[in-house]
Each structure stands twice: as C-alpha cells, then as structure tokens.
Amino acid sequence: MCFSDAAFQQAVRDSKITTKHSSLDVGLAESHFIEQEGTTNAMLAIVFNYEEMAKCDALERLGVIYHEVSHTVTHVFEYIGEEESKIGDESRSYLGEHIFKQVFSIYATEEDKRESAGKRDRAAFVEIGKKIRGNKLQVDQQRDRGPGSDSIHKPKDPPGRAKDFDWQDIGKADDSFFPTK
User: Fold this and answer.
1) Longest Cα pair distance anywhere in the chain, in angstroms?
2) Among 6, 9, 45, 140, which residue's Cβ finds the most Cβ atoms within 10 Å?
3) Least confident window among 7-16, 117-126, 134-143, 161-170
4) Using CA atoms, how far apart are residues 47 and 39, in angstroms rounded to an integer?
C-alpha cells in the first residue's frame, strides 16, 4: 500500500520494475498489478491519495477501500492464472476478506500515525511559542481578541463607576455644583 506517489515509485523500484508507471491517474485510489515483461518481476499495490481520502466520511473511505480490494482480488487470480469462470464465490470472498482486513488495518494505522504526528507537531509548535514569547501562542487559545469566531471584543460588564484617587466610588454627580438658569 502506498499513500503518495513517492512511496509508489519506490515500490516500483524495489520490485525491479523498470517501466514507467503513474500512481494515480484519477480518483482517490487505484489498484495496480504490474508485470515486467520478459522477467519474473511483478508488483501488486493499492495507492491512496490520503489527503483526498481524508476529506471523505468514514463510510465513503470504507467504500473506496472495498472497491480497490475487489480489483486487487481480480489481479491476484489473474496473476496465478486462475480463469475468471472457474473462480468460486467462496474463494473470491475469503481472499477478499483477507485482503480487506490487511488493507483496512494498514490504512487505520496510517490515519493514527498522521493524527499522532499532527498532535506532536502542534504540541511542538506551542512549546516553541512558549520559549520565544514565554506564554502560549494565540493559535493555541481561543479567547476574546484571539483567532477564531469570537475575535471581536465584547466587554463582559458595563463600564464601572468613576473612582477617586483612593479608588473609592464617586457618587452620583451633585447637580448643585452646576448653576441653573
């Protein structure tokens, strides 16, 4: 399984395939069965565009995985020379189940790995901010006047009463001080 073109190209080289192949022509994923003509070199791979897959909901991702596993099962039977008309339903189902479990496990592990890396990256970013500024960066907190949907400051209480020099409330203005006409 590959999650990038670079990983796919490395797998092609590791399989000693010298012909040029692209990882994804269209879509979210592709199953590849490549045989190097004139050699015994062969490769079976499923390539996922992880970033695009991450935009899908879980059910859609499972559907894509199942779809590519179905192609992969066909490629396996093709590779071993089994005729399509002679492949039994049970053989196809058991092989499909086995491959699906492996692919799903690898995909879930990749999701966990990327999620953990994202959390580590965010934590590292916050720590760097603490070292540079001595406190948390704004992106780490959502508060009034900070980034986010509540970035317009709204005072929590109405302005307080005026205070004198000893910080004592000054009462209501004395109207007698101002002459009336």
Assistant:
1) 113
2) 45
3) 134-143
4) 23
Place of tokens 């069965």: 33
The average confidence (pLDDT) of the chain is 79
DSSP per residue over 39-85, as a string?
SS-EEEEEEE-HHHHTTS-HHHHHHHHHHHHHHHHHHHHHHHT--GG
Burial of 166 (C-beta count, 10 Å sphere; 0-12/13-18/19+):
exposed
Length of the chain: 181
The β-bridge partners of 44 are: 33
Distance CA 165, CA 177 (A): 20
Mind listing the pLDDT tens digit for each residue in 9-21? 999 999 999 999 9
Count structural domains, the chain.
Answer: 1
The model's pLDDT over 34-57, given as tens digits with 9 standing for 90+, comes to 998 889 899 999 999 998 999 999
Is 30 a domain residue? yes
The whole-angstrom distance between residue 115's C-alpha and the CA centroid of its chain comes to 7
154: tokens are 């709204």
